[in-house]
Amino acid sequence: MPITSDTLSLIGHTPLVRLKGPSEAAGAEIFGKCEFANPGASVKDRAALFIVEDAEERGLIAPGGTIVEGTAGNTGIGLALVANAKGYKTIIVMPETQSREKMDTLRALGAELVLVPAAPYSNPGHFVHTSRRIAEETPNAIWANQFDNIANRKAHIVGTAEEIWEQMDGRVDGFTCAVGTGGTLAGVGLGLKSHDEKVTIALSDPYGAALYSYYACGELHSEGSSVAEGIGQGRITANLEGAPVDTQFRISDAEGYHWVRRLLDEEGLCLGLSSGINVAGAVALAKQLGAGSRVATILCDTGFRYLSTLYNSDWLASKGLVPA
Predict the structure, then answer these.
(1) What digits encode the pLDDT tens for the residues 276-309?
(2) Which amino acids are annotated catalytic?
(3) Helix axes 100-108, 74-86, angle to 10 degrees
């Protein structure tokens, strides 16, 4: 492999792996994009880089400035790394319900961490609204606004989608993932369909989110709940506008956790619950598309970020999740 002299160029160009157990279960080929291989160990590094460089290109931030964002954790980690490499400061607002590992990581990276109670988006104390206010009150600061800043989506149109298309030699029947901001699903969907309109793009939505209902029957409606971090959306963000979603699946935490355990025990991959939900959705999509189909999904982040939760037996018991 070539030597790179720019640490930010380490973001993206992640491996794609064939997942044996899911492929056998689906009677098809299931591939996982290894986004835990990014420097910040998650897919959110891609959006972080594009958001910051877009702000620079538009003259919105000056040297020594501050990047402010509201995040479930991974985007904040990506932004902190990008900011460190570019000489900026970061202020990250996060719900206090997120994993301790994410909080510790952000502090270790030098970010100023602001924790707020979990609240619905309609509440002015929601982490997104709080981060916007802090950005407005901080000199020489930008609000990353990952949910409605379409530089997020662009990262996946020109990056993730192109990589998947090339790695799969243009033989892609379907793609699916869950939605947090919508950038990955919309961006990869638009990018893949620019090569082949016949590629089926599917939403894999956790319980507690409203998008399954929106794409199934045109109405934002949620039911149930999920403990998965960083996914689950109750509105159509700017990144989701025009997303080419062809079909949708609602995936339970139990289904997602089933694949988290199997991928760890059988294939040596330690992943978070959002990755398990994505894999469950990929299996469902491949079964729908038929034997021999080729489906890609996103392995969002490392399971090492959830040692106190998803990999803690007491926590699992408290959430009604039983090891496979």
Answers:
(1) 999 999 999 999 999 999 999 999 999 999 999 9
(2) 44
(3) 10
